[in-house]
Amino acid sequence: MIVLFLASSLAAATPLLRYDLETTDGEFIATGDVLQWSWGVVSNGPGAGFDGTHAWSTGLGRDYLNDSLDFLEIPVPDLSGVDRPMLSFKHFYEIAPGDAAWIEIDPGNGFALVTPLYGYPAASGFVGASSGWRTVVVDLSGYGATPRVRLAFQADLSTVADGWTIDQVVFHDGDAAAPRLSAVTELPDTEDLTGPYLVEVDAEDDTIVSEVTLRWSAGGVDGADTMSPVGGQVWRGEIPAQSPGTDVIYWVEASDGINESREPLVSGLGFRVYLPAPTGLTAPSGRLVGSTVPLAWTAPASTHPVLGYEVLRDGVMVAEAEVPAADAPILGGEEAFTVRAIYDAGAGDESEPVVIDGVVPSVTGLTPDSAWPGETVRLRLSGDYLLLAAGDVDAELGAGVRVASVDVRDVDTAYLAVTLDTDAAAGPRTLTLRSGSATVTLADAFSVLPDTDRPRLARAEPADLEQGDTGVMTITYVGELAATPTVSLGADIVVESVEVGADGTLQVRYAVATNAALGTRDVTVDDGVRLYSGVALEVSDNRAPSARTCGSPVAPAAALAGIALTAALGRRRRRVAAAPLRT
């Protein structure tokens, strides 16, 4: 009740004279040893005036001079009839050790030191640094109707600093002093998730402090708590519990029923509610070639249990781990990785980042990239940064497609011997390539084709051969050869040459061994990519009827040789004559 009565009984201060130091110097009077008080554009110290670019300062664009005593007199209006005259001004100062600034008043019998409301920071006056713009209020009551007021600044022979800058000078009638706030509790970062977080402040006023409020902003939500006096000038308030990962900004406001103040003057104090981040995140140095990067870190020390970890790449979670190590996928180029612990209470802070420069192995393609069920084909695999090593490469092409072998030619090239099951389903296949510790995939790298227009051998003419035969066979095929092929007619048949015709035929010159095995064998055409099959030929016996009859004498060796040659020539003549009759 007393606070409310006193607050309501107070009247707002009435400005008597305000000096606009932005457009004029106010006819302030500078005197002293070196006349270093000056008015103009402020570039030193605060870098500008309080409410513009101009102000009075002991060094507008430089530090003040040492070994001096200088004064700045402020013209005072006639205070006759003024109930409670007061002077207020904004000031910014940075004063070196051994130097000082203060206020003097001459009521008519000489200048003497006067103490402003709430006093000086030291016995010698304003010393050290103001840490921003501050308000000074001087009660002029009891100094008569025409007192003189001046600001004194003294420097010794040692170091110097920015100096003293003043702005927004006003004479008032009435209470112009807002409560002074000091010693605001600076809360540290905390793992405390239950709160509340206590804040205390010293608040004083030349009349009475009517209200003190603790205000904060956390996670985009603003809050306030009316602080309570707890003894002397100390007031206490609470900030409620916050979620982990929340940054809290807070400040204190006070009122004496007329004037209001805030501490800090701008922005606010801050602390973070957090769960600790892992430390010591490391990755291999130098350029990394692979699809993943091995990361390791040190578990955080916390009162909260750690359930696991999340690895983030450029802020996006890409891997999880139960222990302080993980292999994280990379995309290539410079990438920043961080890791955070997952606690029972939520996600913790992210660690300091580690940046890696990576190159991701890639498969650029398979040639050919398709085949038919039942075929055996040779595929050329090519890529970039594959680091293929003979004997350390494995490849898969999905159901129904078997990779029999991998022939590594260089670090980025290999040939795959591939057999398709006869019942392999038509459609695309994904290639999975494993080389060392790296795994590379390429979607739709290979296709199993439907049976329509399947490449195959249509027929071979002649298809009936005899032991010792020589000649030219015409093989008709359906499809398109990748290159001049090799032809296999089975064991004991030598293929002397192969010519590709323009009409889907091959002209194959052959010779059958005289002791070639009898029976059926398959014809195979290999164009380096695909094996063509589907036709067969028959090898039969070429033995002529015996030249001897029972009881006949044995013919001499020369006669037998002649008979054999004649028989062979006869066979060839018969075969040439019969050829036109084949259909």
Describe the structure.
The chain has 583 residues and is mainly beta. It folds into 5 domains: 2-173, Jelly Rolls, CATH 2.60.120.200; 180-273, Sandwich (Immunoglobulin-like), CATH 2.60.40.10; 279-359, Immunoglobulin-like (Sandwich); 362-448, Immunoglobulins (Immunoglobulin-like), CATH 2.60.40.10; 456-540, Immunoglobulins (Immunoglobulin-like, Sandwich), CATH 2.60.40. The chain has 2 helices and 48 strands. The strands form 11 sheets. Strands 1, 3, 4, 6, 9, 10 and 12 form a 7-stranded antiparallel β-sheet that branches. β37 (427-435) and β38 form a beta hairpin. The termini are far apart.
What are the SSEs and their pairings?
Elements: H1 2-9, E1 14-19, E2 29-32, E3 38-41, E4 54-57, E5 68-74, E6 85-95, E7 100-106, E8 112-114, E9 128-129, E10 134-139, E11 148-155, E12 163-173, E13 180-182, E14 197-204, E15 211-218, E16 221-226, E17 228-231, E18 234-239, E19 246-255, E20 260-263, E21 269-273, E22 279-282, E23 287-289, E24 292-298, E25 306-313, E26 316-321, E27 325-329, E28 333-343, E29 346-350, E30 354-359, E31 362-367, E32 370-371, E33 376-384, E34 393-396, E35 401-410, E36 413-420, E37 427-435, E38 438-448, E39 456-461, E40 464-466, E41 470-478, E42 486-488, E43 493-500, E44 505-512, E45 519-522, E46 524-526, E47 531-532, E48 536-540, H2 557-578
Parallel strand pairs: 23-30, 32-38, 40-48
Antiparallel strand pairs: 1-12, 2-5, 3-4, 4-12, 5-11, 6-9, 6-10, 6-12, 7-8, 7-11, 13-14, 14-18, 15-16, 15-19, 17-18, 19-20, 19-21, 22-24, 24-27, 25-26, 25-28, 28-29, 28-30, 31-33, 33-36, 34-37, 35-36, 37-38, 39-41, 41-44, 42-46, 43-44, 45-48, 46-47
